[in-house]
Every structure is written in C-alpha cells, then in structure tokens.
Amino acid sequence: MGLFCSSIIVIIAIVPWLGNDSLYRYEAIYTMCVSVVTLVMSLALTFRQKTTKGRAARGCEGVVGFVVLCIFAIMWVVLASLTTFRGPFLTTGNGYFSSWIGAACASFAAFASRRKSKAKALAKSKKDEDVKPDADWAEEDDSPV
C-alpha cells in the first residue's frame, strides 16, 4: 500500500517537470515510467488477491517474486537517487519524501518476500524430516530384543 501511495504522489509531483524545455526532463521521464509501472503492478496484484479469495491467494512468493521485488527495489532506489541528488526534487517536499519512502517500501517488500520464502522452505524441510525415518532408528528396529 505504501508503494502504491508513493507512486501516486510521485506522479503528481513530477508532472510539472515533463516539458520539452525542462532541465530535468530525462529524470522526469524515468520517474514517470517507474511510477506508472509500479502503480499498474500494484493494482494487478491487489486485483489478483481479491479475485482469488476462495482459493489460496498468494502474493509475490518464491524466487520469482523475490527477483521481481528486487528489481522494483533497485528501480526505486535509482529513482530516489536521481530525483533527489540531480533534480527535480532537490528540496524537501512531497516528491522528495515519497520517492525515498517508495524506495524504502520496495526494499522492505523484497526483504520480506525473501524471509517468507526462507521460512516456508524451512517449514517444508522440517515436515519432510518428520516423515522420513531415521537410518539409525531403522537399524535399531530390525535388531532382536
């Protein structure tokens, strides 16, 4: 939700810098592209979660979800760095804060996805260990009492 809101605020804040005679035109184009792609992906993921309410509603899980979220995190960190160090968000304001908050939200989502997939893999491995008999236990069971 934070990344969605950051995208909307960045889109609104970057509109005045999209003109042909703007000093920060290329930064504004990159910012607009990243924000719109993030907005569309956030809406698509939210729609997917709402439509699969009876079934297992999964978000970005697994290795693919982690890689996608890492790409978004990198894009948002580049966006925040470009727009706050080179321009147009050189002074603090809505665009400045929302670009850094978007970078933080994307990075947090990537790390949370990785942590969730590790926890799921650990739970699966523990479940597999419970099912498989131990070799030492099998040898002891075959010996006469």
| Terminus-to-terminus distance | 63 Å
Q: Can you count the beta strands?
A: 0
Q: Give the low-confidence spans.
A: none
Please state the average pLDDT score.
Answer: 85
Structural Rg: 23 Å
Give the gist of this structure.
This protein has 145 residues and is mostly helical. The chain has helices at residues 2-14, 25-51, 62-86, 94-131, 135-142.
Describe the structure.
The protein is mainly α and 145 residues long. The chain has one domain (2-41, 60-127). The chain is built from five helices and no strands. It has helices spanning 2-14, 25-51, 62-86, 94-131, 135-142. Helix 1 (2-14) runs antiparallel to helix 4, helix 2 (25-51) packs antiparallel against helix 3 (62-86) and helix 3 packs antiparallel against helix 4 (94-131). The protein is elongated, with a radius of gyration of 23 Å. The N and C termini lie far apart (63 Å). The mean pLDDT is 85.
Keywords:
5 helices, 145 residues, elongated, mainly alpha, 77% helix, single chain
